[in-house]
Design brief:
The protein is mainly alpha-helical. It has two domains: 60 residues, no CATH class; 120 residues, no CATH class. The protein is built from nine helices and four strands. A two-stranded antiparallel sheet has the order 1-2. A two-stranded antiparallel ribbon has the order 3-4. The longest helix has 14 residues. The termini are far apart.
């Protein structure tokens, strides 16, 4: 579309990178052949990145309207907004959440986080696999923070059915930098979760998660 070679486009990106403080801090290579317009473009969009995609779309549309050999790259691009979409909702999910959080004294059973804004009532046996009764059974719930809830939901973490200790898949360390693993996962491995006020998680639910959701070995 630009009648430029890939190399010339690469050089232009290097020119723009000259103004990026993160690039300079890392000591990465840039070029000194930048122009005033390069600086103006960088200054405009580094402070207003949300305007970049719409402006690109307008430029591409204008450019292509003057040519017969190309078409817009983002022909389906639309600005953000809201529309009404009919969807299913989980009945009595709010009751399940209240019961689970109450059982765990509004505290994450793994990390000890006790701010309700950061707590999720996680189904042990997934909602889609549970009967109507199991869906709202508080013994089918764990009080978790969003990070461990996601790991539990994706089968990267589970709970030992006998000792209620935290178990991760073997390769979870390879999914993130070492420090992130140590701070947010490693320190809780093999740790016993905090027990609920009255009813412990139903062992049948945990065994279902071990067998059908967890992607490692128990």
């Amino acid at each position: 579309m630009l009648d430029r070679t890939p190399s010339s486009v690469t050089y232009k990106m290097y020119n723009l990178a000259f103004f990026d403080p993160a690039v300079k801090k890392d000591g990465k290579k840039t070029f000194d052949h930048h122009s005033k317009i390069d600086e103006a473009v960088w200054n405009k969009y580094c402070s207003r990145p949300h305007e970049l995609a719409p402006d690109c779309e307008k430029i591409i549309d204008k450019y292509c309207s003057e040519r017969t050999d190309c078409k817009p790259l983002f022909s389906d691009y639309v600005l953000g907004g809201e529309i009404y979409i009919g969807t299913k909702a989980r009945m009595n999910q709010n009751i399940f959440r209240r019961r689970v959080l109450t059982e765990y004294n509004e505290t994450c059973c793994v990390t000890g986080i006790h701010s309700s804004e950061f707590l999720i009532a996680s189904h042990i046996k997934p909602w889609k696999d549970s009967s109507d009764v199991e869906k709202i059974d508080h013994r089918n719930g764990l009080c978790l923070n969003p990070l461990h809830d996601k790991a539990f939901d994706k089968g990267l973490m589970t709970i030992d059915p006998k000792y209620h200790t935290v178990i991760y898949v073997d390769d979870i360390e390879e999914m993130m930098p070492r420090q992130i693993y140590n701070d947010y996962f490693g320190r809780y491995e093999n740790k016993t979760i905090s027990e609920p006020e009255h009813d412990c998680p139903n062992r049948d639910y945990i065994e279902f998660h071990n067998k059908h959701v967890f992607t490692g070995r128990v």
